[in-house]
Amino acid sequence: MPTRFSFLASRLSQTVLVLWVVATLLFLIFRLMPGNPLVAYIDPNFTAEVQQALLRQFGLDQPLHVQYAVFLSNLVRGEFGRSFFSREPVSQVMWQVLPNTLVLTLSALLLAYAVGVVGGALLAARRGTWAEAWGIPAVLATRAAPEFWVGMLALALFSFTLNWFPSSGATSPGSAYSTWWAQVASWDFLRHLTLPALTLALYLQGLPTLLMRSTMLEVMDEDFITFCRMRGLPERTILLRHAARNALLPVVTAFALGIGYSIGGNVIIETVFSWPGLGRTLVRAVAAKDYPVAQAAFFLIAVVMIVMNFVADLLYSLLDPRVSHERQ
Amino acid sequence: MSGSERAAALPQWTRAAATWRDALLVTWAVARRDRFALAGLIIYAVLLAVALAAPALAPYNPLDLNYRPDGDVAANEAPSLSHWLGTTNLGRDVFSQVLFGTRVALVVGFVAAFGVVVLGTLVGLVAGYYSGWVDTILMRLADVAFGIPFLPMAIVLVAFLGPSIWNTVLVMTLLLWRDTGRVIRAQVLSLRTRSYVEAARVLGASHVRTMFVHIAPNVLPLSFLYGSLAVGWAILTEASISFLGFGDPNVISWGFMLQDAYNSQAMARHAFYWFVPPGLCIMLAVMAGFFIGRGYEELLFPRLRRR
Amino acid sequence: MPLLEIENLTVQYHTLHGAVQAVRGVTLSIERGRALGLVGESGCGKTTLARALINVLSRNAAITGGAVRFDGVDLLQLSGEALNDYRWRRIGLVPQAAMDSLDPVYRVGDQLVETMRLRGGLTPAEARERAARLFALVGLEPTRLRLYPHELSGGMKQRVVIAMALALQPKLVIADEPVTALDVIVQHQVLRTMRELQETLSLSLLLITHDISVVADLCDDVAVMYAGRIVETGSVREVFAAPQHPYTMGLRNAFPSLRASSARLVPIEGYPPDLASPPNGCAFAPRCPFAVQRCWGDDPVLMPTGGGRLAACHRAMEADVLRIQAPQAFARLEATGSQAVEGGAPGGGIP
Lengths: 328, 307, 351
Prior knowledge:
The complex is a heterotrimer.
Chain A: H1 2-32, H2 48-57, H3 64-76, H4 90-125, H5 130-144, H6 147-161, H7 180-184, H8 187-204, H9 206-220, H10 223-230, H11 235-272, H12 278-288, H13 291-319, H14 323-326
Chain B: H1 2-9, H2 20-33, H3 35-57, H4 94-130, H5 132-147, H6 150-161, H7 165-192, H8 195-202, H9 207-243, H10 254-263, H11 272-300
Helix pairs in contact in B: 1-7, 2-3, 2-9, 2-11, 3-4, 3-11, 4-5, 4-7, 4-9, 4-11, 5-7, 6-7, 7-9, 8-9, 9-10, 9-11, 10-11
Chain C: E1 4-15, E2 18-30, E3 35-39, H1 46-53, E4 61-70, E5 73-74, H2 80-86, E6 91-94, H3 108-120, H4 124-137, H5 154-166, E7 172-176, H6 184-200, E8 204-209, H7 212-218, E9 221-226, E10 229-235, H8 236-241, H9 246-254, H10 293-297, E11 303-306, E12 309-311, H11 319-336
Parallel strand pairs in C: 3-8, 3-9, 6-7, 7-8
Antiparallel strand pairs in C: 1-2, 1-4, 4-5, 9-10, 10-12, 11-12
């Protein structure tokens, strides 16, 4: 279908453009940091030669435009250099933390959207009742409560008072697993995952709930729903098969966007629960001025987000049989 | 996406050229008809009063260390008559900190929201009014702003610019104008072709005059809607940045208090009196913004309203 | 006994400006196997009336009185469940917005099958087979069952909705402006199809339209509606040959196909009254060239005028004379914008 193709092609080129701008911004910010990026790293007691050697090692003796070219080509190859502190290759650090972040985000999102879709549909069906009158402010409250505070309450209650769940990390100290998958499937990992995932889900469900409700209400006013009524279809069929199915389109799109946004927001939840993920890595690297790691973590978060924006468009055009026509 | 669709759908009362005064009157209309919006306004009024009177109301200087009669530091004390919400691990009075935190929250919330709305409205007005390449460039900028992960960018920028509440405000303004900008632009696009706007142009009104006198008042309620939501986001973001340790270390904010509590293991000591109140305050302040925003939304887009 | 008898039906809308009576005591019946055309200007309550018959009104509307008897059973007294049984199985409806009446995310065939399975108790195989036959019946190739609504043209969607209305073999089909959104050529095809179906399936048809030429072409009987009331009924032939209500006379003057092509078309001056505050007298009086003192204070009721016809006009007995004056009278009214006939209205009255 040429219209859909050209629509996606234009979105794809836009995606690439945004990625490039973000990468450039990133380069500028980190190069413009006071002094040079090695200030924190270089011990003033080092001799000038050692300092020069270090600068050369990190490519910082080159003119800015050369550094920029090197930076871009490194990005494309997924090469982020070595951590200033641990000396590990940054890509290796990223591979360790990225899966944890994805597991946390996806499990929280799935839970949030399952709850949100059902809750939003119910709120719409019960419009004008006390369930709506109190339901909406309650949902707004979950959106207004700072995630880290909810996390602190959860920790205080469920881990420090009731002792149901561990308070930090992804695994208990000393545990070892043959593969990453074995670790994820383990009971211990699940127990560690529960609190952060629930806290995140509580925050994330607000958007799908409100979105589902408002699109449901819009759909319920459409002529085809009235036509279903005229045909005497059962109320449940109208609500679920017709109204909810149509209202789901924007919610599914929001899900893809949600992956992107919540990965950006994960810095908080991961910090509160000391979850070894991308967000916490970013926070610690920025605080410690470990620029290569901070840069890579930031860039990965941005990539996930921008790609998910694109995926959202893709999903939307696949799910709605009308979209390729209407967008043009 | 749905924002711009809604903007295109349009409130009835923008049919005629509204004036700036009308736009302000809408706020009162919102408060009158929606009890949640009214609750939001009341919350802000109370917070404002507390912020102004904080030095008079607070029993202690929030940064002072307090001592017991025996001369020891009054650290980690449970609530008592002398310390209503107990003390921190350094012996500071929690209640006084909560009162002073109101100031930071309101200043950051309102200044940042003001910045966001002014920038977003300007971008939207200019992009929608001039269209063409100006529009293309500004909207690509908005795309980029949407592509930047907000909180990580805020952290990096604040770390780079130095921790102060003004930098926090600046960063929020630079990153959050995008939503307002897009929605206002969509609105302006539809307003631009209205007859009274065209009439103004034919009668020789300058571009600037047309934009600010004939178009701006009509998009203002929409700006207010996004503004009231932005107040909430700004307060929440400031708290998050402070919690992560990138806030202004010399200013007592609710986020700072929570970071303090978190770092000193207040949860493990069950010191609910310490970390529950600031979180509740943040929640209330943010909710107040959401409530007012919702009031606007229902007034502007009556389809959403209960019938 | 007529198939459907509507008696003194009233429907109210609750709006920001107070209650609006959209249907004000309508009495009307539809005979078995006949097509009744309901005509009137837009906004006169036709659609509200149609939707009130099976009680599918918008949220802010309510039936406030009257009866709707189908085969002698008053539908308005039925519980939700029992009324639902009448919907579609006995009364099908082709709604005004037929173009938007299909769910965009399902194939049209699936929507047809869904209706037959859930309401008609057919097995999937039976339903699919009947769907194909229905499509053939309304002039669509059965291969189109697999398409989504947006892949069909307006005329095709209209036919799908008609097929849908016939799916459960109802005795009565209500078609609300079934062709308004279509272009002229397609309009004729669809209307022709409907008339043929009505005759071959011996349905009763209630056809709602603002276009009296459509009624003249397709219907056996006609009811003319104005401001929430029926003002004249009778057989199409008689009513259009010799209208007894000035409004029907005016309508006849306003449409091309019913008059010699040389005659000038004369629109009816003015607008229908605001039903939030209906007038005391005859609702048509402010636009009527024949209005007399009595018309302004006394609301005429629908009365038999002989030969099975009904009209709601104080001067119905003078209809033969008025009819001759009508073309000039409406033309004069249009030209001057004021009523000056036979000492008519006390000044004012025209909004």
